[in-house]
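<goal> How does this chain fold?
<sample>
Here is the protein in question

***
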Amino acid sequence: MALRRKSRDGDGGSVATAAPPAPGPHAGGSPNGSTHDRTTGFGPKPGADPQGEAGRQRLGEQLVASGLITEAQLNEALAMQKTGGGLLGEVLVSMGTLTEQSLAQALASFFGYEVANLRRESIDSALIELIPEDVAREYMCFPVRFDGDALAMAVAEPSDELSARLAQASGKRVKLLIAPMGDIKWAIDSNYHALSNVERLVQVFESVEGSRRRGGGQEISESEIVSEDAPVVQLVDSILTQAMRDRTSDVHIEPTGDVVRVRFRIDGAMKEVLTLPGTIGPGLISRIKIMANMNIVERRPSPPSGARCA
């Protein structure tokens, strides 16, 4: 079957320990203990929370003073933020007023952070294990490296609260870096693999399948291919999610005897990505039929060699 289609240090970052600090403004201004940047004119208002109302206004003022946006564009963005929520920088990017790169540079100057180039960083796979994928996606953050005993984390827009949350999630001291949102999304998609949980899902399926067969059951129950918690459902979701991340044009699910092969066509070339036990094949196909509003009872002969389902 084929389917088409987030204590201080002195080197430009904010460090939080694993125990979240008590909330409150920080005297002195910027999150790394620096004061107003006289060279760029960027620097948060002393004593203001950079993510609070004063911080947003101050950032907006500096963006206007630097010539990156106009007063009218700032007012429009603040109005949109008030009604729709979100971060000021995010709103400005969505309006097309700023690019992600210019926003990252502005935030780095404003807060006194280092800019991370995620597309050139060599990422240690051990770092990925410190931040679960759901945390990385929820807070739009990515682990870059260790600076001493602090885990350097790239974020799109920093805050003390975010730093504390990431320290709690990782169990490490955290130092924030700035990176464009698009680069963070790219790094997450490139380093967190949706198929990493396949082995666990197969084990759960085989356990359920064994119990069903010992009980005399023959047909796959509806709950096994409908319930969001069912391993077959989660497996199909993982396959399709990884396919989209890999920019796959075709997904081939091929039951062949004792195994089911899953192959992706990427840039015209076929790539085998999974080999699954044959017993899971009927469940996979039935789940896909349900997603496509097809009759799961109907069986059709295999298409001629070279034919494909679009």
In short: DSSP finds twelve helices and eight strands in the chain. Residues 198-214 form the longest helix (17 residues).
